[in-house]
Every structure is written in C-alpha cells, then in structure tokens.
Amino acid sequence: MKIFNILTIFPDMFKSPFEYGVLSKGIENGLFKVNPINLRDFAEDKHKMTDDYQYGGGAGLVMKPEPIVKAARLLKNKENSHIILLDPRGKTFNQKKAEELLNYDSLTFICGRYEGVDERVRELVVDEEISLGDFIITGGEFVAMVIIDAVARLIPGVLGDETSNKEESFLEGLLEYPHYTRPYEFEGLKVPEVLISGHHQKINEWRLEKSIKITLQNRVDLIKKSALDNVVLSRIKKMRKLYVGLMHYPMYDKEKNIVATSITNMDLHDISRSCKTFGVKNYYVINPLPAQRDIANRVLKHWQEGYGAFYNENRKEAFGVTKVKESLIEVIDEIEKLEGEKPLLVGTTARKKDNTISFDKLKSLTFEKPILLLFGTGWGFSDDMLAVCDYVLERIEGFDEFNHLSVRSAVAIILDRLNIN
C-alpha cells in the first residue's frame, strides 16, 4: 500500500477531497492511504505553537522548525518516507514528476503556511521541493491534494481500466484530442463523421492530428522532441509553415538614407545553415540589383552543382533551402502558390517597438498560417517597410542596452527560440 503523509496544521482539510470518485474506491480497496498529520501534536510548548515571528523583522509569521523536523524524522525512520517540501522555490510539478513519485512507497508532504518554513527544515529533513506553478495560494495543503490525486490515479487498479491513463494529456507530449458522446447532434453541432465510421485507423489518425493541432495552438511549450516518435515529428514538420527572407532594400544606411545593400558571402552560407538546421521551408535572399543576384546564384551553383557539391555535401544540403529573388512580391506569390494562401509578414528589428509579437506567440502561429520572417541588412528596415508587416517580432534583449548583433547571429538566435525543443 502506498502512503501519502501530510504534515499540516489543518488536517481536517483532507477529509472530503478523497471521499468521492475513483480515488475513494482506491482507498477502500487498500491501494493507498491518505494520512493527514497534525503538526501541533509535535509542538514543544504548552500552547502548541507551530509558527513565530521571523528574525530580522518583516511582515508575516514563519513556521517553526521543531515540529516539522520531529515529525519528518519519525516518518523517515518508520517508513523510509520521501520528504517533500511544497514551496514556490521548488521545481514545477508535471506528469513526469508524478510518474517518478509513483516509485516511492511512502511520500510525506510538508505544507507551508504564512511566509513559509524555517530555512533549517530544508537543510535537515527535506529530500526535494515541489511547486505547483507561478502563483500564490494560502497554503501547501491545496498543492498536496493535487499531487496526491495525480500520483494516486497512476497506481495500478485505482482507475479500474488499466489502459485509461495511457492516452491522456501530457503523457506523450501532446494535449488530448476532442471527445464526444451522445447525442449525435446538439444545438446544431454534430459529432465528426470519422468517429462514427467504425474505421479505427482513420479514427486514430484523426485523433493524432487533432492532438497535434491543439497542442501547437495552445501549449507548444509541452512538445519535446525526445518524447515524440518519428511519425508525430514528421507530421509536425509538415504542418510548420515558416519561411525566412533576407532583404537588401529598402534599408537604412548610417545616415538613415534609403539604400540597397550588397549580398555577402557569409549571409548566404551561415543563414542557409541556420535555416536548414531549424526546419525553415525556404530561405529567400531578396535583392533588386541584377548584378548582386547573379553573384549569389553563382555561389549557389558552385555548392549545389559544381566542385563544392562534392567537396562539402553538408553545404550542398544547406543551400537546398536557399533561393535568390528580385522582390518581396515575387516571394509572397511563390509562398501563396505553395501554401494556398498569402503568408503573414513578420519583420525583425533591434529598435524598440510597441505592440510587438512575442516569440512564443509566433512559434504557435507558424503552425496556423504561412509565416515569412523578414530580416534586414545595413542599418535595418526603413520604418515604412516595418509598417507594411503584419507583425513586428519582439527584439532580442541582451545583457544591457548594447544591441548590435549581426543579422547572421540574429537569425540563429530567433530560429532557436522558435524551435520545438
């Protein structure tokens, strides 16, 4: 039997939450036990004090070390219990941690209150610290309830159906697909036809596609490459619609004149490699000057067809995503033909701008709409050019106000931030 001990000054809080549903059945069947322990029973003074004013002054009380340490040591000696302090300083709880905690026969949760616990509790008895998230609640009791629920339902026999927790949210790095039950039609909304088709392969494919889309739109941060199989990764790669354009006109020069800049060899090579590394569909080098485009195309031909193709196969592969174009309009038209709709234009700049789109929002957007991420050369885009863009991406913030990255560095940093990792 798994034991969940809770060190708290409010043990009665744990009576009702576990008296209902499948968890109550698990307790009745002897699969696990919830054991609230009143810390006041371990207090050393006649008033049963478990808190006191903090040294150094400051608002709020601090929970005393003696009752907590005494109770925790008793449980450590008796059950070899794993002692967990529920505290904002801890690592954020998730499904992976729930699975790890399932390996312990006995867990003991220290429920903080007020301004927290005396620091010496951490040093003397705590095995690990866990937080539920970046928000403030009145005490650790609520956190303990959530963690117990998440862990207990993983105990074999608690849910009844042993397959029910194998297809749930977060377990495979994806949110769950939509669920439907009777009636077939409700207020004009019908159950998707595929779910009543009886074709199990098509149903599974529909569910996988919906899970991917929902996760990409709502919690792209959940997706971890290492947790996904090749089929899912292949689907995600096809769904992403990210393109990069390096523009050479209209650019500012140092005196804020509008100019056309030259294509550099390093921009061709390094940005091509970054785009290939981070799954960009096409990298467009956009320059209105025929002589400049001719130079760039000769470089590409050397590495794709000439001696360079045999000398460095990696460079040949990187240049496979690179195209040289005369104008932005030409690039937009090509992407529209590929995707069936015009791309959203997202400009980049090192200058401070209001109403910018965040990296996280843009990451999700790349799976919903074709995105043409535009980078400037010279001294950056003209204000008129940025005004044409549908969005301007938030700028890269450095250590201080110095912000003068090369465009090659900026591309690599931004693509890394937009990557699924």
Low-confidence stretches: none
Span from first to last CA?
38 Å
Structural class: alpha/beta
| Contiguous helical run count | 15
Approximately how much beta-strand content do the residues carry? 15-25%
Shape: elongated
Query: What's the arrangement of strands in the largest beta sheet?
Result: 14-13-10-16-15-17
- Number of distinct beta strands: 17
> Radius of gyration, rounded?
29 Å
Structure commentary:
It is a single chain. The chain is built from 15 helices and 17 strands. By secondary structure, the chain is an alpha/beta fold. 36% of the residues lie in helices and 18% in strands. The protein has helices at residues 21-28, 65-79, 95-101, 119-124, 140-152, 200-218, 230-239, 265-277, 290-304, 307-311, 313-318, 328-339, 359-365, 383-388, 407-417, and strands at residues 2-8, 32-38, 51-53, 61-63, 82-92, 106-111, 128-131, 185-186, 189-190, 242-247, 251-252, 258-259, 283-286, 322-325, 344-347, 371-375, 391-392. The protein is elongated and about 90 Å long. The mean pLDDT is 93. The strands form five sheets. Strands 14-13-10-16-15-17 form a six-stranded parallel β-sheet, with helices on both faces. Strands 2-1-6-5-7 form a five-stranded parallel β-sheet, with helices on both faces. It has a two-stranded antiparallel ribbon with strand order 3-4. The longest helix is centred in the middle third of the chain and has 19 residues, at 200-218.
Question: How would you summarize what this structure contains?
Answer:
Helix content is 36%, strand content 18%. With 421 residues, it is an alpha/beta fold.
